[in-house]
Structure formats: C-alpha cells, structure tokens
UniProtKB/TrEMBL annotation:
<dbReference type="InterPro" id="IPR006059">
    <property type="entry name" value="SBP"/>
</dbReference>
<protein>
    <submittedName>
        <fullName>Carbohydrate ABC transporter substrate-binding protein, CUT1 family</fullName>
    </submittedName>
</protein>
<dbReference type="GO" id="GO:0042597">
    <property type="term" value="C:periplasmic space"/>
</dbReference>
<dbReference type="InterPro" id="IPR050490">
    <property type="entry name" value="Bact_solute-bd_prot1"/>
</dbReference>
<comment type="similarity">
    <text>Belongs to the bacterial solute-binding protein 1 family.</text>
</comment>
<dbReference type="Pfam" id="PF01547">
    <property type="entry name" value="SBP_bac_1"/>
</dbReference>
C-alpha cells in the first residue's frame, strides 16, 4: 500500500478502464509512495450522471467535454494551465487530434487534458464484403441501398441519435446552436430529419436500443449485419483476438459530394478541486497523457489515445488494420459540441425527441419546435 491514495473514476469498457490500470500500475512502480485505484461506471452514467458528486468522491476523473462549462462555473476541477508546464500544454495543443484539446478549454482555462479521441466513423466486416465481392459504400445513397438488404446497423439510443442529427445538420452546411434561441434553421433541420429517417426506416428497430459498444459487439459476433455507417469508433474491435470477427474502420461516406461531418467525442482527464494531493495527481495526469505513454503503454493496453504521435504511429496502425490512419480525416473535421453551463440539460433530453420521431413519425416541424423549446429552458 502506498502512503498516498488517489482514487479515479472512468467507464467500464476495455478502452476506458484497462489502459488506465496499466498506466497507474507503472506509475506506482516509479513512485512507491503513491497508490492509484481506478473505479468504473457504465457508459450511460458517463454521459448522463452529474459530475458534481463524483468530483467530491474521486481525485482523478475521466470526463466528457460537454460538462466543462458546468464544472468550470461550479469550480469542480483544477484549472490545469495553472499547474502544468507551459511546454507540456503547448505539446498537447500542437499534438491534438482534431478539436480534442479545445474541447476541454473554457473561458481561457484548460480543465482537462485529452486522454482518448473519438468521433463517429464507418465500420464493416471485411470478410462479408470480400465474400460477396461488394464494394464499400461511398455515398449516403449507397448506405440506403445496403440498408434495404438488411446489412446496416447503427446506434439509436437517445444520445447517439442527437449526435447523428448534429452530423446531418453540419454536413448540410449549418452547425447547430449558431442562432440565439434556436437549435437549427427550419430548412436545414427538416432536411436533416428527412435524411436520418430515410435510413432508420430501412434498418432493424433493434438499433434504437443500441449504443456503439452494442453495435460493435453484434457486428463482430454475428453474421446478421455487415456495415455501420456512423458510430463512435472503438479501436479494440479492429485488433486481432478481441472479438470473434475483426472490424475495419474507415472514413464516413459522402452526402451531396460532402463527407459526413460527425460530432467529436472522446474523453479527458481532470483533477478534482477537492483532491488533497494535487501535486501527485497532476504528476500522474502528465505522465498518462504524455506522447510516449499515449503511443506505447496506453495504446498497448487497449487504449484509444488522443495524442497525434500515437495516431501517426506505424506500429499502432499496423496493429489495428490502419484504424488511426483511416479515421483521422473524420476526426480532423468533426463538429465540436457546446460546452456552456446548461448545455447538458439539452443533451440529456433532446435525443429522446428526435428518436421518438424516427420510431413513430409525425410532424417534423413539431420536432424542431420541441427542440427549440427545450433549448430555451436552460435559463
């Protein structure tokens, strides 16, 4: 047992838990006076559960960036720019994958360091496409055609539905939240809903109960589906031995000659404002998010790094059937969600509105009106 104990909270998947345990173990070997214990919670809790109570219980927190505004306003985390060396912060900024670093900044402060980088990308069963001598879908129309054959699977729980709605809006040329009090213009919103529903009408209703992990488990374990057009990427499933069948990951298809612009996700590592051993916690954070650890120890133990050095590694790409190289373009153009204090309330409920429309139909104008009403409840 170490003289100092740090408690951390992450999410319960090999990608979220195992690499942190590995980095903690090595860090403890180098610092005999410290013990680091990582706990885990469900992916749904990761997206939904309030961060305030967790910050009082844990020293180290793996977080989702839309919580940054709330956390900053309520002083839940340490402003890391006041604790970390400027050289380290500059390396993180220059080595960020897409908007990962920016996503954890708010009002000029850095509240977490990117640990994991992800955005919805396409994935498929290479054995099925080879066996059937089929080319991969290149356009949204190609995806619709494949869906008619029962081969398409995608995540349809509420939060993923909302992220994918953002994707359609961005790809149509208008980012959400650009007009005060309004989520999206009626023209873009109606077109986005129509496109989205044209796909979900052709897919198995089971999709509405799936998150990305469940999608990949089904896609890799059964022969019922062969292609997922967009879901947050998981490099684990592209590695030999992780699942029954290897999945390959690639960039998103094109819509009207524009590649789909998905919504960036990933995770960041923050230190609680209530941490009693800040120097030790910061030292572990710096160690775990450093380029060398991200490229090797973190990746080697199932992690999906956030540093460009790890993404550009030839060895890492060879080990994952070129996951990083193939999906990097999608990360670079991905849309950054809002981080203002109050956004989480919208995210927690907006997906249900869109999901219900995709399942049951109705007047799409009413959907947009409900979304705007929800958006304006934040105050």
């Amino acid at each position: 047992m170490g003289q100092i104990t740090l408690k951390g909270i992450t999410w319960d998947h090999s990608r979220g838990y195992t690499p942190l345990v590995a980095t903690a173990q090595r860090f403890m070997e180098l610092h005999k006076d410290i013990e680091i214990i990582w706990h885990k919670r469900s992916l749904q809790d990761f997206a939904d559960k309030p961060i305030s109570s967790l910050a009082k219980e844990y020293d180290l927190l793996i977080i989702d960036y839309p919580w940054i505004g709330f956390s900053a306003e309520n002083q839940q985390f340490l402003p890391l720019n006041k604790y970390l060396p400027e050289r380290f912060l500059q390396d993180q900024l220059q080595g960020t994958v897409g908007a990962s670093y920016e996503s954890y900044t708010y009002k000029g402060q850095t509240w977490a360091i990117p640990m994991d980088a992800a955005t919805p990308v396409a994935s498929y069963r290479p054995d099925w496409f080879q066996k059937n001598n089929r080319p991969l879908p290149a356009t949204f129309d190609d995806v619709l055609e494949l869906a008619e054959q029962g081969q398409v699977i995608l995540p349809g729980i509420a939060v993923d539905t909302l992220m994918n709605f953002y994707m359609f809006c961005c790809t149509l040329g208008e980012n959400p939240f650009t007009s005060p009090g309004r989520l999206i213009s009626e023209t873009t919103g109606l077109r986005a809903l129509s496109l989205y529903k044209s796909l979900t009408d052709k897919t198995d209703p089971v999709c509405f109960d799936l998150n990305p992990i469940k999608v990949y488990e089904l896609l890799s374990a059964s022969d019922s589906f062969s292609y997922c057009p967009f879901a947050y990427g998981y490099t684990n499933y592209s590695r030999p031995g992780y699942a029954d069948h290897i999945l390959h990951f690639t960039d998103l298809v094109r819509l009207n000659d524009t590649p789909l612009i998905s919504t960036i996700g990933g995770t960041g590592l923050a230190v609680s404002q209530y941490c009693l051993h800040r120097t030790k916690a910061i030292a572990y954070l710096q160690y775990t998010t450093s380029p060398n650890i991200q490229e090797h120890l973190y990746f080697d133990n199932g992690g999906q790094p956030a540093h460009m050095k790890a993404w550009s590694s030839g060895a890492n790409n060879a080990a994952t059937n070129q996951f990083f190289q193939q999906t990097l373009p999608a990360l670079k153009r991905a849309y950054l969600r809002p981080r203002y204090n109050g956004y989480i309330h919208f995210q927690d409920h907006a997906g249900d509105i869109i999901r219900q429309y995709l399942i049951s139909g109705g007047n799409p104008k009413n959907v947009l009106n409900q979304l705007d009403q929800l958006l304006n409840q934040r105050n």
